[in-house]
Amino acid sequence: MSNNEGVQMVNGVPVDTRKAERILAWLIRKEAENVRTKVRSDVQMIADIQKRIEEEEKQCY
To answer: Which residues are CB-neighbours of 19 under 8 A, at least 6 positions away?
Structure first.
């Protein structure tokens, strides 16, 4: 179920697909950079991902 606003229902939860795609692209770039440099640990990467998702969520409200 999608509409013209870029929101799609996933398991009963509305998801802004544009924001999801933006987060995914950021994540792929960040992970590729970290694979080359090994600067951040898995725990640090998880924290970065959580922070980015929270930032995107705050922009919604």
So the answer is: 56, 59, 60
**Which stretch of DSSP H or E encloses residue 14?**
strand 13-16
Distance from the first to the final alpha carbon of the chain: 22
Q: Residues 2-61: pLDDT tens digits? A: 444 789 998 998 888 999 999 999 999 999 999 999 999 999 999 999 999 999 888 765
CA atoms within 13 A on the CB side of 20: 10
Instruction: Identify whether the C-beta of residue 10 lies closer than 8 Å to the C-beta of residue 54.
Output: no
**What is the pLDDT at residue 44?**
96
Cross-strand partners of 13: 10
